[in-house]
Amino acid sequence: MNIFFTRKIPQKGIQLLEEAGHTLTIHSETLALTKAELINLAKQHDAVLSVGGNQLDANFFEQCKHLKCIALMSVGYDNVDINAASLYKVPVSNTSGVLSKATSDVAFLLMLAVSRNAFNMHKKIEQGNWKGFEPTADLGIELYGKTLGIFGLGRIGIELAKKAKAAYEMKIIYHNRKRNIETENLLDAEYVSFDELLKQSDVISVHTNLSDETKDIFDQTAFKKMKPSALFINTARGAVHNEKDLIDALQNKTIWGAGLDVTNPEPMDKNNPLLNLPNVCVLPHIGSATVETRDQMALMAARNIIAALNNQKMPQVINKEVYE
Ligand code: 8YV
């Protein structure tokens, strides 16, 4: 059958699909396709492997209800109208599980980098400003024994909590829509309200999905409730924090620093004021970007397509209701 890829994926995934006898069309340019271009291409194929934030809205599914499946090469699916996919009986799968370790590594990296202002220190040398030893300058904040507040304690948050406990004996608190006693017991974590998460955390790390409920939830009001020494880390989705309010909070020293692997929009403009603030580190959405993880993601997406094209249930299907 014919499969359309919205971007080039690691060879292992391509090979698996070719060995299964499918014909692949790969859009290998970095620039994302427009909605109309994607609909037009999807109409000529049996399945779509979607990488990156292509907006698959109700109109897409209405026009492409012939599709046997959509396989996302991501855990997040905020770019997909899942209700519309279900309405038109198109199964959609994601790659949940395989990227938790790599993404939590980036959250951990940002925590450390921001707590010691590593990226600005690099810039300091680059700009010729390292003049000598200054005992009271360039001081960071230590993480040992501090409180890590996780907003959205799922697979990625659990991996981060494990590292923070093992390396820094951090106390773990979390806020989710629902309490998860099993995870609490595993991590010795404490469930708190969103307000308490803001007030008690020395580091807040965001691992929630993006929804109407979580969009802009970290706004001026939220930042004002945080400690002036607090770090804000987001490796989930850029729209969970309000960028203008975050910039104000950093400029006014309402909070101490921020580490972002996600921005809104992506890519971020090179003149964005965040890039010139102290105690800030911004990365270009590299959470899952390791050779090992991207191979696993490509293989998982490919296996899901193979299942769907064999009229079997996709192992990582999101909208299970299509099979009922
Ligand atoms: C992906 C991600 O690299 O899985 C996710 O949700 O954000 C990243 O791992 C990105 O979405 C590309 O599809």
UniProtKB/TrEMBL annotation:
InterPro entries linked: D-isomer_2-hydroxyacid_DH, D-isomer_2_OHA_DH_cat_dom, D-isomer_DH_CS1, D-isomer_DH_NAD-bd, NAD(P)-bd_dom_sf
Keywords tagged on the record: NAD, Oxidoreductase
Coiled-coil region: none
Gene Ontology molecular function: glyoxylate reductase (NADPH) activity; hydroxypyruvate reductase [NAD(P)H] activity; NAD binding
Domain D-isomer specific 2-hydroxyacid dehydrogenase NAD-binding: 109-287
Domain of life: Bacteria
Known catalytic reactions: glycolate + NADP(+) = glyoxylate + NADPH + H(+); (R)-glycerate + NADP(+) = 3-hydroxypyruvate + NADPH + H(+); (R)-glycerate + NAD(+) = 3-hydroxypyruvate + NADH + H(+)
PROSITE patterns recorded: D_2_HYDROXYACID_DH_1 (PS00065)
Domain D-isomer specific 2-hydroxyacid dehydrogenase catalytic: 3-319
Pfam families: 2-Hacid_dh, 2-Hacid_dh_C
GO CC, any one term: cytosol
PANTHER family: 2-HYDROXYACID DEHYDROGENASE YGL185C-RELATED, 2-HYDROXYACID DEHYDROGENASE-RELATED
Protein name (Swiss-Prot/TrEMBL): Glyoxylate/hydroxypyruvate reductase B
Family, per entry: Belongs to the D-isomer specific 2-hydroxyacid dehydrogenase family. GhrB subfamily.
EC code(s) of this entry: 1.1.1.79, 1.1.1.81
